[in-house]
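Sequence in, structure out. First:
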Amino acid sequence: MADTSLHHNQTSPQSAAPVRARAASLHHVVLLAAMGAVLLVAGPWMFDTYLLNILIKAFFFAIAAITVDILWGYTGYLTFGQSAFFGIGAYAAGLTFTHAGFSASTALLAMGTTLLGCAAVAGLVGWLSFYRGASPFFATVISLVLPIVLTQLLLSGGSFTGSSSGLTGYPTFDGSIEAWYWAAGSLLTVAGVIGWVLVRSDAGRMLLAIRDNEARCTYLGINTSRVKTTLLIAMGVMAGIAGFGYSSFSGVVAPELTGFALGTELIIWVALGGRGTLWGPLASGVLVNVATAYLSSSMPFAWQLILGAAFVVVIVLFPQGLIPLLLQPFGLSRDVARAPLLRERAVTPGAQASGTALRMRGVTKNFGALKVLRGIDFEAQSGELVGLIGPNGAGKTTLMRCMSDGIERSGGTVELCGIDIRQLPPEVCVHLGLGRKFQNANIFESLTVAECLRIAGTRLERPSLLRQNPVLQLPAYALHVLHTTALDHKLTTVARDLSHGEQQALELAMVLALKPRVVLLDEPTAGLTKTERTQIGELLSSLAHQHGLCCLLVEHDLDLVAQISTRIVVLHQGTIVMQGSFQEVVNSPLVKTIYSGDARPQGEHA
């Protein structure tokens, strides 16, 4: 296909303000970064030995806080378990140096143990927490149990682990306080930069998408369990490295470094600094540790009360955290979106193949004794737009769930493009050629229009860990949706700020960005105006008749169904009672009886 790029997104008046805002934001970022560099370099000459000692430890704790923010603030995984990984790194150094002495080889052994131990434990926790169907609450409970179990193991270790007293006085790196300050500060800087690059990249936007709407991610072909497990392993290793540094500097390890209390404190620091801001938790982790060191000795009980009260106040009154409020005058409290260049992605011949695209044989769905679907036999061809109608409760949406998720049906077989989906999850069905639009607009509310569309293209283009791609490639029919609804002029608009009709159109464009062969549409015109319904109807008709997609449409607007459908299927009480042309169906006495509310499925009439 021709390469049709749309340059107006970069030169339109709407984009001028964001460009100026990005320039101002970059200027402020450079200014604050320069101030931080000055503090890091000049710290040993500005602070006394006591404060330097506190800051070094605070830097290591702040790294752990960053990992919590990436997991919780950006991905939505509330975890108490990062203290366990911090403790694994700390004890890897403490145990190795205590029992094997200190040398270059033992230091490498301790670091290797840290990396492998944290990765292995994080992989196990991810496998237990993010299996198919696991709830976020269950994952949080697993993260809470982890530090408790690890602490008990250390307490049961006797003289080997030091039990409740921990390990002290072991040999470690011989460095001055100034060298440790620069080393710890540099490590914190590196961790912050890595986190900043990650969360601003296309892969980082995928984390936000998982946080906003994990179910929609699975129906875009994203294996969210794999993503979260991989991220947990990376953040576990980062926290472990911080623990290794803390133990190597202090020469002391204790079970408290792995405990539930530290895991809770990390969450508090993230909430106080600003969840999902990265720099907020970093600053909060440092400042709270410094304040604790100076105030805990003079007011040990009152200080904990003050910190707890501050946490409650911030959660209630300033849920975005304190640091974003302080950075707001500098224009750093928000990330200004950049409008990408739209470009058409060529559709391969396989996406327009002919033949049977969807086949169902004997499909049933039971909820206990209640039979919702009863032996559904159904086929749909490429290039066909099948209207699925029936009264409320007929089982239309349930039938769509059975088509798109292998675990949903109780019996029978479903084939997508000639492949039996068996018990496969939705993300695998998407890779087989499925696209599903839900009744209510199912989008990522905190992301921009362009970011939503880019997440939808993850199956076709692996997102970068380092940058945002300035070009957004979409199939011709997805671009047509954007042009028809004027969404191509709102690429930098946050999805929650769109009208209802625009959100419906955005979800349709996201589904089409997958380049599907089978498109399931559950009441796509619900709540739209007459003009919007006409636009969507024309778009849906073109998908089947011009682009050769197989479309299954559930719709209560019979006028729309009559205009665009090639065939009508009537579902009633879990069975297909009739199919044919629109005129054949609407003129059928059986269908009239069904909609009057006085009919039973075929085979159950007296």
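Second:
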Amino acid sequence: MSRRIHRKVARRENDSVVMPSCPEFENEGLSLNEEGIVDWVKLPYDTVIQLLSSLNYRDRASLSSTCRTWWGLGISPCLWQSLDLRAQKCDAASAASLASRCANLEKLQFRGAESAEAIINLQARGLREISGDNCGRITDATICMIAARHEALESLVLGPDFCERISSDAIKSIAICCSKLKKLRLSGIHDVDGNAINALAKHCQNLMDLGFIDCLNVDEEALGSVVSLRFLSVSGTRNMKWGLVSQSWTNLPNLAALDVSRTTIHRTAVWTLLSSSQSLKVLCALHCPALEKDASFLTYNTEGKLLVAVFTNIFKGLAFLFADNTKEEKNVFFEWRNLKKNDKNLDEIMTWLEWILSHSLLRITEISQGLLNNFWVSQGAALLVSLLHSSQEDVQERAATGLATFVIKDGENAGIDGGRAEAVMRHGGITLLLNLASSWREELQSEAAKAIANLSANVNVAKAVTKQGGINILANLARSIKRSVAEEATGGLWNLSVWEEPKDAISDAGVVKVLVDLIFKWSSSGTGGVLERTIGALANLVADDKCSKELIEVGGLHALVMLARDCKLEGVQEQAARALANFAAHADSDSNDVAVGEEAGALEALVQLTRSTHEGIR
């Protein structure tokens, strides 16, 4: 029996993390490069913790990457240059302990309004980049305080969720306080008025990248006054007056790329923008119904400019951005990353395109489930796979989430689209996802494991995951102290355990003990996600003779009875009952039936479950 595939989007609750005590540090290949820089970004997670907690560098330049594990390590202020709070629960007390240690912080990532309210106390006057998600409860007051305390800010990105409590007043405060701003991307604001946009034009002379995404109203005419813009996105924004857009945006002297995906833009506006703007090189219009229904527009000649739409050959268009043709169109992102041409303009466009495509494709998977099948099989899957290579962490995460979501065909019946799943496999997506699941970044581990889990509901993908060592990777992730990682990894093992070939491999990999250990680890957590997936996998496995014997040896039968008797979560109860039933009914072993009967409390628990109001449990 396969686990039900849950359609998950990017929004998640905050997870608190208890850092484990660090074992004695052992040298794992740490070395200095020719410039004397410590190259530790590729080291294992525990090694990085030990490295940072045991070394005391006076030379700030001797560290070259991101410090993510800060909780209680007592790290010297000179080490703080980049900080990721997304995996942590940052409250006022935590922020207070950080404040005196973060004077040199330049880049900050956070999740949730609680973290946003806490970080305003950081003493990081040199902070240049702030990125936050799960920001739906952030208010004007918090944004204004952050802007006022960080006048050196160059980049502020909040989303992709909806920041409905942020108004134009906050945008004006950002403009007035942060005159060095180069990038501003905000999502889900109700109204962005002309005063706010004009303030950006007046005070932020270096503003090159602006995004008002999934907003309700944006003053189109005012955007034409931000003459410094090179990149503009209004993706998903409603109530746009495209006649005004055609008049004002074509005069932006530096506008190189524009994103109008998921809007009501029509053929006339697109034609005007592409033909009248001298600087515009790229126009993204993914999933714009008015264009896709306009048969006359499908053969439109863009005259050397790139139009990114579901009906265009996106990879071929991307290849034309290069001075020379690439050998393989669908490798265009990979080849760009390996170019040594030092073309700053091309680099900026391609970096922007990666971010825009990952955002738009993920949004489209969420709102158009079961639609655009030809696009997903012919181009969409390959695009998402190519974005897994990105050096931008949020792009990688969104691409993995997109792959987990776009394969779902019917959310109610947990069906997946086999053609889409196998398209991911054809383009090398399974190997990439397994590599990313082995990353030390917990957010990426979770999203990659989710994609592997959903894709593994297809038997051919499940076989590919097994052959490429995916079972051991998922088993290792299942041991994670972070709930979301453990949930997705155990979900993957559940789906793999449905198929015979992966099931045989699981039985040989000692995964049964891992799953039983997880029952004891999470049984008192009060949340059923990990437990339900764990027991669902065991229920499939215990029909195998080797697995059923191992279950008894490692105390798994006792664990299942304990849950069947004491757990009040219906999903967990159902899977525990199914596991006991499958174990007792194992055709090749009458002793299993006896073992269940002899286990203390087993019969009492089963009788109790037969009285459940839940049909599946009965």
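Remark: Confidence is low (pLDDT under 50) at residues 6-80.
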